[in-house]
From TrEMBL:
<dbReference type="InterPro" id="IPR010982">
    <property type="entry name" value="Lambda_DNA-bd_dom_sf"/>
</dbReference>
<dbReference type="InterPro" id="IPR046335">
    <property type="entry name" value="LacI/GalR-like_sensor"/>
</dbReference>
<dbReference type="Pfam" id="PF13377">
    <property type="entry name" value="Peripla_BP_3"/>
</dbReference>
<keyword id="KW-0238">DNA-binding</keyword>
<feature type="domain" description="HTH lacI-type">
    <location>
        <begin position="4"/>
        <end position="58"/>
    </location>
</feature>
<dbReference type="InterPro" id="IPR028082">
    <property type="entry name" value="Peripla_BP_I"/>
</dbReference>
<dbReference type="Pfam" id="PF00356">
    <property type="entry name" value="LacI"/>
</dbReference>
<dbReference type="InterPro" id="IPR000843">
    <property type="entry name" value="HTH_LacI"/>
</dbReference>
<keyword id="KW-0804">Transcription</keyword>
<protein>
    <submittedName>
        <fullName>Substrate-binding domain-containing protein</fullName>
    </submittedName>
</protein>
<dbReference type="GO" id="GO:0000976">
    <property type="term" value="F:transcription cis-regulatory region binding"/>
</dbReference>
<keyword id="KW-0805">Transcription regulation</keyword>
<dbReference type="GO" id="GO:0003700">
    <property type="term" value="F:DNA-binding transcription factor activity"/>
</dbReference>
Length: 341
């Protein structure tokens, strides 16, 4: 069977190999009529491009890196699906790197990626990331796009959700459900998403004249036993909160376990809202009220912005930034005593 190459397509269509190559690459230099002729014949002959040879000629790996802090959080697993959908559609491979919420690992990964393994990177910064020089250095050589957890530098596309409004909305919902003493649980003193959610929380507390001394942002930094101990301390005593907002999904299990161990009933004794995309929220007992982020859409938007930049190095990546709204889904964890869901 004859191997179908660009040269063969050129001979059949009586065009130059350069024209065929540009047409297959969807170049603006080639008319739509000619592109259609090329695509139609390529499809008819089952032409498969040699991606490896193409990448060598263009000095491109056709691979992008994705840096995320963890995969246990369903937001990131869903966002990865959105990223993969776009990457596969455009003929790119993805390399997934976990920073495990560690700044030093984030620095090491970005440093290693500068040696030609990838054409660019998508990233959501770690909870420890409080300086951005390492990201700026990477951005000087390869394009980077942020999603969800963003850095103030370098100037690039940032795909986020409306974190301030969601912090406000979650707090307002608890206030309307009767809560007077509300705490927001934070996992970082530097993450942009936490500061935005915290600002929304504090604005809602002020707007509804609640006592800021009993409505505060509490650092719940760490994992495992540390988080469990912090939550136990918060939920013990006569002046315990009657409402909790968890800024990340992984705090949910500890909140439910500590309430169970202390004999506190959700939602009668304490109402709970969590920023979460977990599918199991609806089958928890009680079912969990969530701020659900558009994870898949954010992943898609981030990948599209980066691949657009890789196709055209002259675009302004900052102009590709998007804010995609999240949704409050009310369930039993914030219900009144006589409410049913």
């Amino acid at each position: 069977m004859e191997t179908v190459t660009i040269k063969l397509l050129a001979e059949r269509l009586k065009l130059s190999t350069a024209t065929i190559s540009k047409a297959l690459g969807d170049s603006h230099e080639i008319s739509e009529v000619t592109k259609k002729r090329v695509f139609d014949l390529a499809k008819e002959l089952n032409y498969v491009p040699n991606a490896y040879a193409s990448s060598l000629r263009k000095n491109k790996s056709k691979t992008i890196a994705v840096l995320i802090p963890e995969v246990a959080d369903s937001f990131f697993s869903i966002a990865l699906n959105g990223i993969e959908e776009v990457a596969i559609e455009k003929g790119y491979h993805t390399l997934i790197y976990l920073t495990h919420e560690k700044l030093e690992r984030e620095k090491a990964i970005l440093s290693e990626l500068l040696y030609g393994r990838v054409d660019g990177a998508l990233m959501s910064v770690s909870s420890e990331t409080d300086s951005f020089e390492h990201i700026e250095d990477f951005g000087k050589k390869l394009p980077v796009v942020f999603f969800d957890r963003v850095a103030s530098a370098p100037a690039t596309a940032k795909i986020t959700t409306n974190d301030f409004e969601c912090g406000y909305l979650a707090t307002k919902h608890l206030i309307e459900a009767g809560c007077k003493r509300i705490v927001m649980l934070s996992i970082s003193k530097s993450l942009s998403i936490i500061s935005e959610r915290s600002s929304g929380f504090q604005k809602a507390v002020a707007d509804h004249q609640l006592d800021p001394a009993t409505c505060e942002v509490v650092n719940c930094i760490g994992e495992g036993k540390t988080v469990h101990t912090t939550l136990t301390s918060i939920l013990q005593g006569n002046n315990r909160p009657d409402g909790i907002i968890a800024t990340v999904e992984r705090l949910t299990t500890d909140i439910y376990l500590v309430c169970q161990q202390l004999g506190l009933q959700i939602p009668d004794d304490v109402k709970v809202v969590c920023f979460s995309n977990q599918a199991s929220a609806v089958i928890l007992n009680p079912s969990l009220t969530t701020i659900t982020q558009p994870a898949f859409e954010m992943g898609r938007a981030a990948a599209k912005a980066l691949l657009k930049r890789l196709k055209n190095p002259y675009i302004n990546l900052e102009e590709e930034s998007e804010i995609i709204p999240s949704v409050l889904t009310v369930r039993s964890s914030t219900a009144g005593k006589n409410s049913t869901f």
